[in-house]
Amino acid sequence: MIESGMRIAPMNVLYKFFSLDYFLDAVVRNHCRTIELWGGAPHIDIEEITSEEVRHLKKRISSRSLQVCCLTPETGLYPVNIASEDKLTSKRSEAYLMKALEVAAELGIPLMQVTSGSGYDNESVDEAWGRSVDILGRIVLRAEALGIELALEPLSRHESNLVYNSATLGRMLADIDSPVLGVQLDTSVAAAAGESPWDYFRLFGTRIKHIQLIDGPDGHLAWGDGSLPLAQYGAEACEHGYTGSFGLELFDHKYYVEPDQVLARSIGALRSLDVKGGGQA
Amino acid sequence: MTHLNRSQIAGMNENYRLFPLTYFLDSMVELEIEAIELWAGAPHLYIEDLQLAQVRDIRKQIESRGLKLICYTPEQCQYPFNIAAKEPQLHRRSMSYFMKSLEAAAELGTNLFQTVPGWGYFDEPMEEGWERARDSLAALTDRAGELGITIVLEPLERRGTNLITDLPSLRRMLEEIKSSHLKVIIDTCPMAAAGESFEDYFQTFGKDVKHIHFVDSLHRAWGDGHFPLPAFLRDIDNYSYEGYLTLEICARSTFANPAEAVRQSLAHLYQEIDRLKEATA
Q: Given a cut of 80, is residue B1 above it in pLDDT?
């Protein structure tokens, strides 16, 4: 069972219009002990946050006996793109991810999510791909030095022409070729690309570092609001010996006003699953 | 007699974000749209990175194609910026983003600038965020006045803010600031979400309605949603509105082929405008 509360990891992006403390209290109220930390304003403004603020943040998390399984800096909404042909943008984007790594290290978070960025749709994919490989390669080296692992998440095709499904993800892993760089599986993004966790496990096995178990395929939905087979996904993950957390990256405008009931509903659906627990359960 | 003309329809680059800005400009020329509204967001124009010299180059790109910039709309819902932010640092950063955006608008030669109210934490009293938003808007409006720019204020849907979500809250803000440089923009989506109509807006604000974001439901291309296009156009025409109607299409499904979404919208709009002219001839 996923019931211990160890493996379900609520994520603060659902509470982006609430204070971070409000979110942390909601996690405790739902008897969860792990969170996936979304690095976005106003909760964590990666570009601006100071060491003092990070130390304060660490206290706010640990005083509630919570642990963070993954830091997911906002890259989709923000003007961050490591594959940009604009030098200023790519430089700023690299600095952003480097800073995020420092934040993860100071908070003692073992894993950080990264994405490939994107090239223009009317220009050569190869050049943008090369720029992405170069910067991801440097991020990987820094992560290794800090003892942090990375999970590369495919974007949707509406966001990127680089890493947007399991095939392009496999190609990027091969190009970077480092054990530090693993895979993040977002069940909704995968489903939108016509894939399921099974495809990912078959291709990547234990290189899957993190799973965001969310309903879809049109959006990042709470369980029951989409059409994906949650029980089957959970079973597939556990069958393959996945021992990580299940991040609840729920975000949809309709959830923002009353996130409490959305979170409770999703946690309830996961707890009702008869899925054999992994090492942490 | 019908007042509304095809030339009042303006294009916008928001759904062209997977392509360079020049691609969007060329597309407008091809679609025979003369008026454009500039969405200032990456990768087209991210103001924190840009120098004014680059802004001048964008102006040249617009004018050399015979296009006319009718409004500057900085990205403010996806990015960290929030003029009502509680955190002093985030608030300072947001104000500097908007002040710089006003300078850019002046440099680009437009006298219209769109702004949303920002938001306060949903778990704090609304009035606290309101006061921050009001003070920020007053400062921005003062600067806009110096630059000869009018700011048009747009309500958001409740799911995106707790401050200005409907006509009464918009009117309250305008009355509290009382500036000839702060006027009204109607966006079809928040208007419909609040259960309000063009008639409500024109009856309340009259000629202070300076701009309209005119899209089908969920910011889709016309024909892809469920808004009553003929009724909308008739209302707008009844009040002899002389400003622009911008196709602010943001639906992700249009990102891969943005021009098609504009072409489809224009076909619907032109047909209805022609019908209106026939009916009232």
A: no
pLDDT band of residue A274 (cuts 50, 70, 90) is low
Q: Is B33 contained in some domain? A: yes
pTM listed for this prediction = 0.94
Secondary structure letter of residue B43 according to DSSP: T
Whether B232 maps to a domain, the answer reads: yes
Q: Which domain holds residue B273?
A: 6-280
> Cα–Cα distance between A85 and B184 in angstroms, integer?
37
Contact A160, A120 (CB under 8 A): no
Contacts of B93 in chain A (CB under 8 A): 45, 48
E runs forming strands in chain B: 9-12, 35-40, 68-74, 112-115, 150-153, 182-187, 209-213, 245-246
ipTM of predicted complex: 0.93
- Residue A130: helix, strand or coil by DSSP? helix
Which residue in B146, B160, B90, B147 sits closest to B118, CA to CA? B160
**Domains and their CATH numbers in chain A:** 8-271 (3.20.20.150)
List the one residue out of B242, B246, B151, B248 whose CA is nearest residue B202: B242
Asked if A88 has any chain B CB less than 8 Å from its own CB, the reply is yes
Contact B37, B244 (CB under 8 A): yes
Dist CA B172 CA B184 (whole Å): 12
Q: Which amino acid is at A99?
A: K
User: Has residue A278 got a pLDDT over 50?
Assistant: no
Neighbouring-strand partners of residue A211: A185, A246
As a whole number of Å, the end-to-end CA separation of chain A is 8
Hey, is the C-beta of B88 within 8 angstroms of any chain A C-beta? no
The whole-chain average pLDDT of chain A stands at: 93
Question: 3-class DSSP state for residue B185?
Answer: strand
Q: Is B1 part of any domain?
A: no
The answer to whether the CB of B12 falls within 8 A of the CB of B249 is: yes
Q: Is the pLDDT of residue A255 over 80?
A: yes
Q: Round to whole Å and give the CA distance between A64 and A202.
A: 37
- Kindly state the tokens that stand for A272: 């009702």
CB B229 within 8 A of CB B272: yes
Pairwise pLDDT comparison (A198 vs A153), residue with the higher score:
A153
Residues belonging to chain B: 281
Chain A, window 50-79: residues with a beta carbon less than 8 angstroms from a chain B beta carbon: 77-79
The domain that holds B221 is classified in CATH as: 3.20.20.150
Assess if residue B161 is contained within a domain. yes
Please determine, for residue B102, whether its predicted confidence score (pLDDT) is greater than 60: yes
Chain B residues inside the 8 Å CB shell of A51:
none
